[in-house]
Amino acid sequence: MAEKKHALVTGGSRGIGMAIVDQLLQQGCDVWYLSRSEGEAASLRTKAESLGCSLTWVECNMADRVSVEQAVEQVIKDAKSIEVLVNNAGITRDGLIMRMKDEAWDEVIAVNLTGAFLTSRRIGRLMASQRMGSIINISSVVGIMGNGGQSNYAASKAGLIGFSKSLARELSSRGVRVNVVAPGFIQTAMTDVLPDTLKEGLNTQIPLARIGKAEEVAHAVAFLASEKASYITGQVLAVDGGMAM
Length: 245
What we know:
- The chain is an alpha/beta fold and about 240 residues long.
- The chain has helices spanning about 15-25, 45-50, 65-80, 100-130, 140-145, 150-170, 190, 195-205, 215-225; strands spanning about 5-10, 30-35, 55-60, 85, 135-140, 175-185, 185, 210-215, 235-240.
- Strand 2 (about 30-35), helix 2 and strand 3 form a beta-alpha-beta unit.
C-alpha cells in the first residue's frame, strides 16, 4: 500500500480552496490548510475521518511574512513531510490604476504572490530533500489576458506564472514538479454577489457559455498533484471554459 501523502493548501477555508481540500482528502491525503479562520472547510473534518484522513487548520495571515513562515513551520513540524503544496490564497482590491492606492497594490501582491514565494521557498527546500513533490499555484485567466480595473490582481497572477515556470526549472532535477492552474470565471461566494446582468455579460465571453464550478478547478489540481501527472511540469492549465483561447 502506498504511503499516505501530506498536503498543504493556502486559502483553503472556502470556495475554490475548500473544493481543493475536499479533492485531496478524496485522494487519500492528510491535509493542512492555512487561513485566517477555519471557515466552511471545517465541515469537511467528519468526511476526512470517514476517509481515514486528517484535516488540520492552521491560523495564518497570508499578508504577513512572519505569520506565513510560522504557520508553514508548524505544518512541517506536524506532518514531517509534504508531498503536495497548493498556493491558492488570493484576494482582490479592484480599482482603476489612476485611483488605486498603494495599499491596494501592496496587499494584493503580498497575499497573491509573496505568500506563494514564502511557502514555496520553505516547502520547496523540503521537497528537494525528499526528492519528490508537487507544487500547484493557482493563477487566473486574468493573469493571461489582463482585465481593466484589476492591474494589481493581474500582475500578481501573471507573476505566479513566471515564478512557477522558473521554480519548475530549479526543482525538476530533484523530482519536484511545479504547475499552474488558471481558473476563469468560477462560481464562489465572491462572484455570487455580482449583478445578474454582469454575469450574463461574462457568459457571452465564455465559449462554453457558463460559469465554472469550484470542483472543476479542484479536479484539475488533484490531477496535477497525482502520479497521473508524473511527466508534467512547468505548465499552465486554464480551467476557464475557453476564455483564454
